[in-house]
Amino acid sequence: MSILELKNVSYRYKDGNNYVLNNISYSFDKGKTYAIRGRSGSGKTTLLSLISGLERYEEGNILFNHMELNHIDLDYYRNTNVGIVFQSFNLLPHLTAIENIILSMDISKVHVPNKKKKAIELLEKVGLNEEIGNRRVLKLSGGEQQRVAIARSLSYDPEIILADEPTGNLDHETEDEIMEILINLAHKEKKCVVIVTHSSNVANQVDVIYELKKNK
To answer: What are the chain's domains?
Structure first.
């Protein structure tokens, strides 16, 4: 059963006549990894913005657990049901890794007895330890920062993980390590993992590939 469905979704910017997305119908299940591929300008990031609730759609339907996305509280949806991982990590550099994760818990109003302990557990899940967790983000490598970003996205236990070029700034070996984490989140913890990527290596490791064609 699909946790997320797009039915005949089309989208164009308010100041434009051409459609960025045209009649898109995709379905996403828990326990699977998905890659969204396409040339520059094909609408990959726009699609991610729509299913994360950062942009509103006017044509077609996007359903989360059979509920129309436009009809639910999108702030609550983003802070509870969807974890977002960015290519540029989007961590606060003056904070430690642990502090970044705790801040995410605070924003999402997560109720746990010991937030620091929970943050350390999440870091360990992505292969980092408490010592690294106590370092400021600027002192971490790119691969370590992306692991922290994934741990942060898990801080409120979302059902869906959306990753926008999560390995775009990483070398091949680190890319495989990050993919192993994302695949385990889907296959072992039954998350729905959706990855926008240009990488053939990433696409070759997922369960389903969706190809977006650039509209002329």
So the answer is: 31-53+73-212 (3.40.50.300)
